[in-house]
């Protein structure tokens, strides 16, 4: 199957200025996504979609394609679906699967990417695969609504007194991988297609960089993550 990997990286980040070219582990954030894709055995084409010249320059250091998108597709409220649709149509090529690699979730490996693609290839009735991590401390049983008198109303009835080990596992999208069949993506105009499978990842490396605090946490986690993946030959 032909697999298109798209890395969306706009220039106008407010939470972390110039986020996508800010250094993590000595290299621009976007480089981690590009290197993940380049290490894949299943990616047919790798494209960075950006509106920003500095990001394009960083991406062009690698043997991939850069597609410049219009600024109106790179605003704070722009939908990534429109950016991906623009990029796909621009290429004028056919692909069976589209994989979205967001630079903001850098702690993932090429082996993970291939496993995601393999999962979708082997499950013909699934239209997508989303990476997730199991959650225990941050769990709906520990969450509440506030009523009009500011009283706490548990989201899960009878759940707040359960021990952590007694809670039914829930899963959180970690932002690392969104893979979708091209046909389903265009029909549903979404990466969150109706029939999707989970690719479960290690919650120890959960990080999605939206603000300065996230970047600091990523910096702290990165070396340990790198050492673990290197040690296990991933």
Give keywords.
globular, two-stranded antiparallel ribbon, 234 residues, 29% helix, 6 helices, Spore Coat Polysaccharide Biosynthesis Protein SpsA, Chain A
Please give a quick description of this structure:
This protein is an alpha/beta fold and 234 residues long. The protein has six helices and eleven strands.
* SS field, number of helical segments: 6
Computed structural class: alpha/beta
The share of residues in helices is 25-40%
CATH architecture: Alpha-Beta Complex
Q: Low-confidence parts lasting 5 or more residues at pLDDT below 50?
A: none
Distance, first to last CA: 23 Å
Description:
This protein has helices at 29-38, 53-59, 80-91, 110-122, 182-188, 212-231; strands at residues 3-8, 23-24, 27-28, 45-50, 65-68, 97-100, 128-135, 144-146, 152-154, 170-181, 196-200. By secondary structure, the protein is of the alpha/beta class. Strands 5-4-1-6-10-7-11 form a seven-stranded mixed β-sheet, with helices on both faces. It has one domain (3-131, 172-231): Spore Coat Polysaccharide Biosynthesis Protein SpsA, Chain A (Alpha-Beta Complex), CATH 3.90.550.10. Strand 8 and strand 9 form a beta hairpin. 29% of the residues lie in helices and 24% in strands. The longest helix is centred in the last third of the chain and has 20 residues, at 212-231.
